[in-house]
């Protein structure tokens, strides 16, 4: 087993999950797998920062044993309760049951509730430190990045930030460092991770990043708990997160729709023509054949969002519901939207989309476009005009 020493005396001892294709239950696809990163810091005292998802416990223990006996670990640091990082705790703590576990107070409560074990919890607050010898660990509470219990661990002398879920990506590779992999794929995964997990927490992301920036901590490396480690200009991912959290996006449009007999699809194509005529870049997704978590990543990149659906039972097609439901929970930042769709004897889809976009905090900037059966010549023109009008609306300073 090849050792990965990310800095002198600091080892990656996590696991690569090449096969995981769905995360958080079945809510989010991970086409490129993921990793569960844990770090072993060997000094006069030995600390383990985080564990792995439960089924990978043996891999964690094998990697630790390749460096030193597990019994040599003096401290266990749990940055986050969620089981993809704490699942290895029961197996680990069976071997070292009396070792102190450092976590936040909420982390202690969560770990106890999950595992019902009376480990020797040491709740910490921001600014508290733990001396290992030459090295010092400094803790920074980071509530809601990703759960209320979350915290960051900072290795002071090495200037390494271990922020757990923050700045991660679901990307399984043989490499461990971000500068060793395909950059397009890396940032695609980082963006998808942000869009699908962090969007509703964006105001807290901005606050926490600004707080860390004010501390003026030197940061040579960011070692998250998923994916690749950022060592070459690590602030690049911090600035990306800041931009995403502030709603900075391109003047481009996602058109997401589904259709029953093709009329709404025809409308979508004509709207695309209108957008193109105004020089507005746009991308089209038919939701019955598209992975919605990929579309959410596209929505992160684009300020404009047009959503279309045929009407069924006075409402949207069921194939549109998962995307709109996700958007309602994720509340994407500073998006401008509008709705369109065709209907038979009754409408309903367009008003339902508008209601759902409003609930998702999308600024519905244009009255929806609804037409019966199939667009005639005049209505085809209206669809093209709708695309043009939306492009112009998106460019208005207020939007
Ligand atoms: Fe990777 Fe919030 O767990």
Characterise the protein shown here.
It is elongated, with a radius of gyration of 24 Å. The protein has twelve helices and 22 strands. The strands form five sheets. Strands 1-2-7-8-9-10-11 form a seven-stranded mixed sheet. Strands 17, 18, 19, 20, 21 and 22 form a six-stranded parallel sheet that branches. A hairpin with a 2-residue loop joins strand 1 and strand 2. The chain has helices at residues 57-65, 83-86, 89-95, 105-115, 183-198, 202-215, 235-245, 263-277, 292-301, 321-330, 349-359, 377-395; strands spanning 4-7, 10-12, 15-17, 22-23, 28-29, 34-36, 39-42, 46-49, 75-77, 100-103, 120-123, 129-131, 136-141, 151-155, 160-164, 221-224, 250-258, 282-286, 302-309, 336-343, 363-364, 369-372. With 399 residues, it is of the alpha/beta class. The protein folds into two domains: 4-245, Ribonuclease Z/Hydroxyacylglutathione hydrolase-like (Metallo-beta-lactamase, Chain A); 250-393, Rossmann fold (3-Layer(aba) Sandwich). 34% of the residues lie in helices and 24% in strands. The structure holds MU-OXO-diiron. MU-OXO-diiron binds next to helix 2.
